[in-house]
Sequence to fold (177 residues):
Amino acid sequence: MNLSGSPVLLVPRTLAASWRGFYVAAEPDDGLPDLELAEGTSWQIDDTVDFDRPCTDYDRLCAMLHEDPCLVSIGNGHGVAFGPGHDLLGWCDEHQEIVAGVMPESRDRLVWQYQFTWRNPGPDLLLMNSCRHGADPDTSDGECFTVNLTPGLYEVATAKSAGPWAGTLCRFQSKQA
Fold:
């Protein structure tokens, strides 16, 4: 995923439609909407970006994203936000990690720092550009894709680059026996 510095969002698909990204509801006199959803609602991109008075979910996320990663309220649950500033992101299924930058050649020197515990209602999640509207999860453009993670409680930890690779990892480790 190339997000041009936007935070990435790991969100349960059941909650995704509650995330509106940088969209606001279109008014009848707005002209052509930027996004029309299947259920008939229309949306306009709001690119004013006001972190002091956020009017979009994207603004709200960016205003609160002082820790990387962080929990973000979405509908009646939570997703995990990671970024901003990481341009290239992906998911490593083998290690259950969001990868920002390049995977390390060796995991021997990684120092993990616990961040928080997250309850995943999963298993069907979306890893998506946080600018997107969650009710429009187009996975064909590379800015949104499906992640499968067993439902349950996870410890979320990060490891930053300390050697020749440039990157940050965000690991989801199951707390189940």
User: Anything to note?
Assistant: Residues 8-20+67-174 form one domain. The mean pLDDT is 86. The radius of gyration is 17 Å.
